[in-house]
Amino acid sequence: MNAEVLVEAEHFDDLGGWTLDTGFVESMGSPYLIAHGLGTPVADATTTVRLPEPGTWRVWVRTFDWVARWDASGCPGRFEVLVDGEPVGVVFGTEGADWHWQDGGVIQIGKPDIRVSLHDLTGFNGRCDAICFSRDCASPQPPFGCRPSVQAGWEPGENASSRYDFVVVGGGYAGMCAAVSAARLGLSVALVQNRPVLGGNGSSEIRVPLRGLNPDETPYPLLGRTLKSLEYDAQPNASKASDTDDAAIERILRSEPNLTLLLNHYVASVEMEGNRIRAANAVCTRRPSSVRLEAHCFADCTGHGTLGALAGAEYAIAPRDLMGMTNIWSWEIAPEPQDFPNTPWALDLKPGDFPVPPEGKSNGTWCWESGFNLDPIRDLEAIRDWNLRAVFGAWSALKHGEEAQKYRNARLTFVSAPGGVRESRRLIGDFVLSSDDMLQRVEFEDGFVPVTWFLDRHVPDPNYSGPYRDNPFIATGIHEPGTDREARPRHGKPWWGIPYRCLYSRNIVNLFMAGRNISTTYWALGAVRVMRTCGLMGEVVGTAAAVCARHGCLPREVYKTYLGELKRLLGASST
Predict the structure, then answer these.
(1) Relative to the CA of 331, which of 116, 136, 207, 456 has its CA 20 to 30 Å away?
(2) Tens digits of per-residue pLDDT, 485-533?
(3) For 4-134, CATH number?
(4) Domain 159-318+422-453+488-569, CATH 3.30.2000.30 — does that match?
């Protein structure tokens, strides 16, 4: 009798040194485990599995060789699967340019309850999506598709349903500010975040510095209070973020009595009633459960516009010449010599092919960016992996190249595994903000959020494009062609210009948005994408959600009927 038992990545009890990567769920359909050890093998991830019976089982592992898509040699992501401490006999992560089921051979299992472990061999980003034990030992092919529905002996998980006034998806600064602002105005709020930490690009995992201003002089004195409460002394800027910073932000949100925080959850589907979201279904990445979230209004603060895309919201996305993803890294000088493995699979670089970040700094490495002409959703994993090849290739060049003696005691201290993304979907609202609006400082009656950053975009840096001209990995900033002006001089007066009408969907009637996925043109995105500006958008959206709850109305009606009330809630002295 054939049977299959699946051990999915999210079902591992102890992740050890492996990280559950949820950044590519939209493109590949599931989170997976990655061994991000900076060249040092990470501790085993382990879990207990109950098989129907002992006997002969064939092992399948869903994985791939993550550099094979570029025909690179070396197989950096090698790992083993251990059953009760013994390797099954095959090294995984050694074949295939795409995710697939790699055959682990046939093993004898003497008891139904076994301990399964992922044993990293390299520290260089081996990855595993799932392990399958199959009783069909004779078949040379896996007996199922990409992700079968069988489970590893788990009891049926909780599938709860909850009703809220407001559901926010995405736990970066836009999402946090939207959720907290609404909760402090008395709404029952759920905040869904697909990572174990909050902060998005400003978290300790990614460490993009907070940029933009939270001005003290403002026509809306109450705007910015929530953002300021999340910027505390322990985190002067996100480039110095630590696990302690993540915990401090989490404590702030968990202290809000009206806010339910759902970390390690991602929205997999939505239920629609015509052009209105009725519910969002959030799947937990750490146990077999999900929660159905009903609400009067929703906010897409995912950056990618994921909730909006699931709901059928209209959006725009540039076909090429996008701003890319950055994987920040840093290093330091240790008291003693530091080894680093050879990396034949990384980009073949030499000093001069890249800018060396200063010792101990990660703040200056935003320019390690790629993906300018790739799809920012479908190709996101490949963009991140190219960045990793660039970073490890650069570090190998320093450790093993002509200047090796200079870097003899140097060691990597950080390379972000999830990357910081700048551009993907822009959800379309009732108004699409343009760069001309900013340059002309148009005064909109619903202009709430200040623009305090340059009107800039990132493009490949021609000074470092030689070795890999077709897929560059170093960026520089430019301003809009045809003008040498900026949306705002760095020390000039802010322009209070992002209209409220950019913060809700044109065709999904109960969907707000805040962050880099709001309704702008290609060039206007350059000035509104930074995190403090996104946080202020979130405050406006959270406040508008409170207006919707009070009057039983929808986001568009706030603009048409209750704009004065929104202004008063944000502290305007008169309307």
Answers:
(1) 456
(2) 555 544 457 788 899 999 999 999 999 999 999 999 999 999 999 999 9
(3) 2.60.120.260
(4) no
